Amino acid sequence: MSGKPPVLQVTGLDAGYGDLQVLHDVNLEVYPGERVLIFGPNGAGKSTLMKAVSGLIHPWEGAVTFNGRAITGMPPEKIVSLGMSYVPQLDNVFANLTIAENLEIGGVLDRRRTAQRMQEMFELFPVLGERRKRMAHTLSGGERQMLAMARALMLKPALLLLDEPSAGLAPMLVADTFRRIVAINETGTAILMVEQNAKQALEIAHRGYVFETGRNRFEGTGAEILGNKELGKLYLGEEE
Ligand SMILES: Nc1ncnc2c1ncn2[C@@H]1O[C@H](COP(=O)(O)OP(=O)(O)O)[C@@H](O)[C@H]1O
Ligand SMILES: [Mg+2]
User: Fold this and answer.
1) What is the C-alpha separation between 233 and 229, in angstroms, rounded?
2) 21, 69, 82, 145: which has the fewest C-beta neighbours closer than 10 Å?
3) Which of the residue ranges 54-68, 97-111, 138-152, 225-239 would you say has the lowest mean pLDDT?
4) Is 51 exposed, middle or buried (0-12, 13-18, 19+ CB in 10 A)?
5) Ligand 2 centroid to 193 CA: how many Å?
6) What is the maximum span of the chain, computed from C-alpha positions, in angstroms?
7) CA atoms of 14 and 16, how far apart (whole Å)
8) Pairing mode, if any, of strands 8-17 and 20-30?
9) Running DSSP on this structure, what letter comes out for residue 138?
10) Strand 190-194's sheet: what is its strand order?
11) Is the CB of 43 under 6 A from ligand 1?
12) Percent of the chain with pLDDT strictly greater than 70
């Protein structure tokens, strides 16, 4: 996109757990301002890739570059401080803290901006503002997902990683979630997200990657992926 260097570049990445190699020579790029989708079957290594990029697991081989800087093997808190936030699929809020407390923790690396940023989050997610004193465990699934995203946005990251943000949400809330992701992106945060609702997610994605057994299988624009007959049959529920 527009000749700018990528905000995130993953090259030749191998990673896994113990003896199990999950990622094999994975390559991926996200350019400033982009919304990029990753999809593929269960167990393809999508979450493992998110963990390797955000520093939660150490890559075995290859490189992760963020805004031109090598971050391979850096601890997650350092990567967050450089401007990349990650929202895991599960356990992404502190259940026994209030909404406001969750957001404070999200902003702890830049306390001077916390109050203002929290206000901005309440504008983006009004329902969180109304409930700011409520414990996170009392929230619905959709509200909790909003809180997880808001918490990740407190430091105004250049890149937001989202692992299945619409998982487990009612169809109406899925569309809502995708609309919010677009709104977040339009404030200047690039998005890399894993989604099972691939068809809907492709509608808002600039580009997408299909992963299979820990490898790059296909990449292209939403239209290219949606127009690929074989991928359509395999992953998008298209009939022959
Ligand atoms: N913490 C872990 N320890 C060992 N194996 C894991 C762990 N997490 C995931 N795996 C394995 O890694 C493979 C890829 O998993 P994952 O990255 O979660 O796939 P996806 O997100 O695409 O469904 C699977 O075989 C899974 O069982
Ligand atoms: Mg996963």
Assistant:
1) 6
2) 69
3) 225-239
4) buried
5) 11
6) 57
7) 7
8) antiparallel
9) G
10) 84-87, 159-163, 190-194, 35-39, 207-212, 215-221
11) yes
12) 98
DSSP structural state of residue 98: B
Give the class (CATH, top level) of 1-83+157-240. Answer: alpha beta
Q: Model confidence over 63-117: pLDDT tens digits?
A: 999 999 999 989 999 999 999 999 999 889 999 999 999 999 999 888 899 999 9
> Which residue in this structure is represented by tokens 């299988």?
217
> Can you tell me which residue has the tokens 């808002």?
204
Q: Are 38 and 211 in contact (CB under 8 A)?
A: yes
As a whole number, the mean pLDDT across the chain is 93
Domain positions in the chain: 1-83+157-240, 89-152
- Ligand 1, atom 5: nearest CA belongs to which residue? 17
Distance set, CA 61 to CA 43, 84, 93, 133, 141 (Å): 20, 21, 31, 45, 36
Q: Tokens for 177?
A: 């979630």
Residue nearest to atom 18 of ligand 1 (CA): 47
The pTM (predicted TM-score) of the whole model is: 0.94
